[in-house]
Recover the amino acids of this structure.
């Protein structure tokens, strides 16, 4: 986790109110990402973690990650959300 300097930007506003709370920026080798932790109560589906290719079972607390800059992969960065194990995301560079 890298400390992000405080710099006002319109990009800090998430596209959907659902993700407005508790999202934070994270700088990795390939750019800046927004992350939000997903508590066990919110994890109602299982996902495949891109870090280890293992399943994140429903009910497992994990993190949701999406590109900081909309348009990097798609018009809507929120469409690029990926679900990661918390530990796998922490190990990613
Ligand atoms: Zn993983």
């Amino acid at each position: 986790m890298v400390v992000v300097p405080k710099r006002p930007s319109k990009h800090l506003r998430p596209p959907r109110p659902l993700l407005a709370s508790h999202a934070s920026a994270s700088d990795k080798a390939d750019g800046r990402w927004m992350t939000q932790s997903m508590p066990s109560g919110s994890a109602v589906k299982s996902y495949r973690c891109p870090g280890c290719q293992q399943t994140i079972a429903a009910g497992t607390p994990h993190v949701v990650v999406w590109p900081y800059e909309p348009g990097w992969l798609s018009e809507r960065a929120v469409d690029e959300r990926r679900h990661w194990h918390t530990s796998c995301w922490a190990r990613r560079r």
